[in-house]
Specification:
The chain has about 210 residues and is mainly β. The protein has two domains: about 110 residues, Cupredoxins -  blue copper proteins (Immunoglobulin-like, Sandwich); about 80 residues, Sandwich (Immunoglobulin-like). It has three helices and 17 strands. The protein is elongated and about 50 Å long. It starts with a strand and ends with a strand.
């Protein structure tokens, strides 16, 4: 598997890593990437697993908008459709499958800034998910300095929401929720935990 790390590493980045490092997966489904648009935090890793028939190339915004296929200088390039990128720098990243760009096979990755993560994680504490891999449930644990509510969604590899709960109340202090997943096929899923001013998205394995 090829690995690519975005070039700019800021001096305070290792401190922020302690707060949030998640993994995400992007696959190919027919003539589309799944998911085709994803939001991650700086320091997160994205695994590309689109298969040998779907080479993947990073492009700039203008090329992406015009359905062009010119590679971005210094961007990631996975001819066999397999690789991973650690996104250290906030911004929007654009990628395509060059041979199917006329069919709209392209996607984006939005990377949220470290500063925002530090503020949110200081307020809500580190979100801990376990077990991972999971079987019939996932425990969600975090600490908050005030009460509030969260929503939790479990999303499959095609981007379909298969389990969700909304307006779950939590208390000041340490909170633990058991998210029941039911009987699911083995695979990689995305768990999205969203509060009033924070969001935690990570890949979980069945």
């Amino acid at each position: 598997m090829k690995e690519f790390t975005t070039s700019l590493i800021l001096a305070w980045l290792p401190v922020s890593y302690a707060f949030s490092q998640n993994t995400h997966e992007i696959k190919a489904e027919g003539f589309n990437f799944s998911p085709s648009s994803i939001s991650v935090n700086a320091g997160d890793t994205v695994f590309f697993n689109s298969g040998s028939f779907h080479p993947l190339l990073q492009v700039d915004q203008e090329t992406w908008n015009s359905n062009g296929s010119g590679a971005l200088d210094g961007g990631f390039d996975f001819p066999d459709g397999l690789g991973k990128v650690v996104f250290d720098v906030a911004g929007t990243y654009y990628f395509i499958f060059p041979s199917h760009i006329s069919s709209g096979m392209k996607g984006t990755i939005t990377v949220n800034s470290i500063t925002g993560i530090q503020e949110n994680e200081t307020k809500f504490g580190q979100v801990i998910l376990y077990p991972n891999p999971f079987n019939e449930y996932i425990n969600i644990n975090f600490r908050s300095d005030k009460s509030g509510s969260i929503s939790i969604m479990l999303i499959d590899g095609s981007g379909r929401t298969i389990r969700e709960y909304h307006e779950i109340k939590y208390n000041q202090g340490i909170n633990n929720f058991r998210f029941l997943t039911g009987s699911l096929a083995p695979g990689i899923y995305t768990l999205d935990v969203k509060g009033e001013s924070f969001r935690h998205v990570t890949a979980v394995i069945k």
